[in-house]
Amino acid sequence: MAPVLEIRDLQVGVDTGREVLSVLDGISLSLEPGRTIGIVGESGCGKSMTALATMGLLPDRFAITGGQILFEGEDLASMPDRQRRRLRGNALSMIFQEPMTALNPVLTVGRQIGEVLELHQGLSGHEARQRALDMLRAVQIPAPERRLDNYPHELSGGMRQRVMIAIALACRPKLIIADEPTTALDVTVQAQIFRLLRELQGETDTAIMLITHDLGAVAEMADDVAVFYAGKCIETGPVAQILQHPSHPYTQGLMVCTPTMRLGAAALAESPPALGEIAGIVPPVGRFPKACRFAPRCPLADDRCRTEDPPLRALGAAHAALCWKAEEEAFA
Amino acid sequence: MTETLLSVEDLKVHFPLASGDVVHAVDGVTFDVARGACFGIVGESGSGKSTVARALMRLEDPTEGRITLGTDEISSLSGDRLRALRHRFQMIFQDPYSSLNPRLRAGQAVREPLDLMGLDIKGGREQWVRQCFADVGLHPDSTRLFPHQFSGGQRQRLSIARALATQPSLIVCDEPVSALDVAIQAQILNLLRRIQREKFLTFVFISHDLAVVQNICTEVAVMYLGEFVERAPTGQLYAAAKHPYTWSLMAAALTPENSRRAGERFTITGEPPSPIDPPKGCRFAGRCPFATDTCVAEKPAIRDFGGGHTVACHYAGELTPPLEELAA
Predict the structure, then answer these.
(1) Helices (DSSP H) in chain A: which residue ranges?
(2) Chain A residues touching residue B37 (CB < 8 angstroms)
(3) Residue B2 sits at the chain A interface (C-beta within 8 Å)
(4) What are the CA-CA distances from residue B278 to residues A307, B16, B268, B285, B317 (Å)?
(5) Going by C-beta distance under 8 Å and a sequence separation of 6 or more, which residues neighbour residue A151?
(6) Burial of B277 by CB count in 10 Å (0-12 exposed, 13-18 middle, 19+ buried)?
C-alpha cells in the first residue's frame, strides 16, 4: 500500500544568529493508511520537532534545511504556505499534549469544531454545528447537546482532550499527529482515550503518528516504532520486535529503566530489583557528540563508535538500527 | 523494627469555598507508617493524595484528625513549637523547576533550612552541605551554581539534598519522578531507594504510577475522592487486590512488556465526581461496573482481610477480578 507519509532524510536546523545548529539529522520514516507509528525518546531528542516540521508549525528560527516530507506523494517541505494551509486541519491534523492551551478559551467547543468544517469543507454555520454535535457524540462526550455551548474551562481534562480529538478528526484526516496526547491525563482516562482513538482509526483508516516518551503507550497503540536520540532516528521496526528484542543499546537502556508492574504471584516474589540506568543525560542541541551520538553514555562503546559514524544495519524485516554493535547484539 | 514513626488518625482536610460549599479534599484517612518503611499513596488527580502530603507537612491545616510523628502530635502545633520540629520532616516536590528559588545558589538552597532552623552540625554547615551534595550524586563544587544551570534530574537531586540537609526521619515525596524522563526517573528512583536504606529514612510516597509505587514502596494505599478504598503491603496488593477501583487502575497501567490492546482491557467509564458533594454511599459506585443498589445507598465499611489488607467495598472478596493475573 502506498504510504500516506514518507519522510526522507529530513534535516532541521535552528539559527542561533551566529550559526545554524542541527536539530534533526537524516530522519527517514514511512507510514501507511490505518497504521500507527510510535515515536519514542527522551525530551530533547527531536520527536516533537519532527511533528512540527510535518505540520509546518516549526517555531521561529527553526527551519527545514534538507530532505523531503512526502504527504500522499506531495512534498510538504517545499510546498507554499497557502497550499499547506489547505491541508492542515483537513487531511492532516494534530492533537496536542495540553488541551487547555491548545483550545481557544473564548470560543465554545461547538464553534471550535465547526470552524474547521466551515473553513475546509465549506459547510454553513448550521451544518457545521450539526456536524460538531455528531463529532462530540463520536468522541463519546456525555450530553453532547449541552456541551456544544460550553467553553473549554467548563470541561474536565479528559473531556477537553476528547474535544481536541473531535476537532482533529472533524474533516476525516488521512494523518493525525498525536503529540503526547494522554500525558496530562489520568491512567483510567488515558485508557479511554486510547480506546477511542483506535476505534475511530478503525472506522476511517486514518494513519497516526504517536509521539510519546512512554514505552507502555507504544506497546498499547503502535504497529511500528521509531526510537529517537539526539536528533537521529536510531532504531526502527515493528513494535513486537523493538520491545521484545531491542537492538540499539539506547533502546535496551530505555527498556530496563522503565519500571514494570508485576501482578499476581509474580508480585509476591522478592522485592523488585533496582532499575537499570542509562548514565548521564541527553546532550543539548549544538553539543551532539561526533560519530555515534550515544557513545558517551553507551556501555558497549569502543574507539570505533567514538570516531566513525555508525551504519544503519538491517536486522530483519523492516527492523534496522543505527549502531556499530547492533548486529552482534541481535544475534547474541 | 516495627516502631511506628508516623501515625495519622481520621485525617480530614476540607476547603470552604466562597459560595458556601465545601471541598472534601481528604475525608477521613487513617494509617500508620513504621520507621524505615515507605508508604505509598496512589490515586488519580483530585483524589486528595497531594493534600494528604501537604497536611502531613502542615502546609495545609487539618480540619479534623490527628497526625503524630514519633511522640509529638504535629497536627495541633503552630508557630515556634511547630518550627522546632520541622527539621524532622521534610518534603520533595514534583517540579524541581518551581520548588527551588532561582536566585539562590545551589549550596545556599541546601543550607537555607539549616540556617533558618539554627541547626548546628559537627564539622560546620558548609562541610555538611558538600556532604549532602555527594550523597545525592552531585559534585560538591556545584554548590556555586544556580538552579537553572542544572538539568531536570540534577535539580531533583538538589531538592533531595535539601530535604536531607536537616537529617529528617520522615520525607514526604509528592510525585518526585513524574516530571522526569524515564532514564532520569530510573536514576532518581534508585537514588531514593539507596538513601532510604542507608539513612534508615521513612518515606510517604505519593504517585499516580502503580509501577513506580511497586518499585519503591513497602505498603500502598489506593485513594479515591478523599478516602482510602484499599490498603495492603505492596506484595499483597499487587498479588490479590480486591477493590474494583484498584483493578481499574491496574488494568489501565501500560507496560512495554505486555501489549494488551485497549479493546481487551477492563476499563471504567466516566471521571470522578466532584469532591464538593461526594456521593452518599460508596464514592466509586457511579463508575463501578459491579455496583448494586446497596453500593449507592450505603457507605461500605473498611473491612480487614488479614495481614494488613483492608478494603472498603461491600463485595470485596466475592467478586472475580477482571484481570487474569489476579484471578489465578
Answers:
(1) 47-55, 81-87, 99-102, 109-121, 125-138, 144-147, 157-169, 187-204, 215-221, 239-244, 249-257, 303-307, 326-331
(2) none
(3) no
(4) 63, 14, 19, 11, 25
(5) A105, A106, A107, A108, A109
(6) exposed
Return the pLDDT at A332.
Answer: 44
> How many angstroms separate the CA atoms of B111 and B109, rounded?
5
Q: In chain A, whose CA is at the least distance from the CA of B194?
A: A274
Nearest CA in chain B to A185: B45
Q: Does A283 touch chain B (CB under 8 A)?
A: no
Statement: A5-91+171-247 belongs to CATH 3.40.50.300: yes
Distances (CA, A) of A183 to A179, A244, A259, B51: 9, 24, 17, 22
Residue that wins the pLDDT comparison between A187 and B53 = B53
Provide the Cα torsion A54, A60, A65, A70; round to 10°: 10
Q: Which three cell numbers stand for residue A329?
A: 547484539
Name chain A contacts of B270, Cβ cutoff 8 Å: 142
Read off the pLDDT of residues A265-290 as tens digits, 9 standing for 90 and up: 888 877 778 899 998 888 989 999 99
Query: Does A217 lie at the interface with B, CB-CB under 8 angstroms?
Result: yes
ipTM of this complex = 0.86
List the single residue in A213, A220, A257 with the smallest CB-CB distance to B254.
A220
Residue ranges of domains in chain B, CATH in brackets: 4-217 (3.40.50.300), 240-328 (no CATH)
> Taking a contact as any Cβ pair under 8 Å apart, which residues of chain A between 27 and 46 contact chain B?
42-43
Q: Which helix or strand (DSSP H or E) is residue A280 part of?
A: none
pLDDT digits (tens, 9 = 90+) for B40-59: 999 988 899 999 999 999 99
**A-contacting residues in B 256-295 (Cβ below 8 Å):** 256-263, 265, 267-271
A240 touches chain B (CB under 8 A): yes
pLDDT value of residue A98 = 81
User: Which residue spans within chain B are E strands per DSSP?
Assistant: 4-16, 22-34, 38-42, 64-69, 72-73, 89-92, 170-174, 202-207, 219-224, 227-233, 303-304, 310-311
Instruction: Enter the C-alpha cell of residue B98.
Output: 518551581
- Model pLDDT for residues B207-231, shown as the tens digit of each residue: 999 999 999 999 999 999 999 999 9
> How far, in Å, CA of B245 to CA of B250, rounded?
9
| Model pLDDT, residue A140 | 84
Query: pLDDT confidence of A45, banded at 50, 70, 90?
Result: very high
CA of A320 vs chain B CAs: smallest distance (Å): 19
* Predicted confidence (pLDDT) per residue in B226-264, tens digit: 999 999 999 999 999 999 999 999 998 888 876 555 457
Substitution target in A182, A187, A198 with the highest count of B β-carbons within 10 Å is: A187
**Whole-Å CA distances, A258 to A16, B182, B215:** 35, 6, 10
* Size of chain A in residues: 332
pLDDT of A88 > 50? The answer is yes
C-alpha cell at A180: 503526547
Residue appearing with cell numbers 467547543: A109
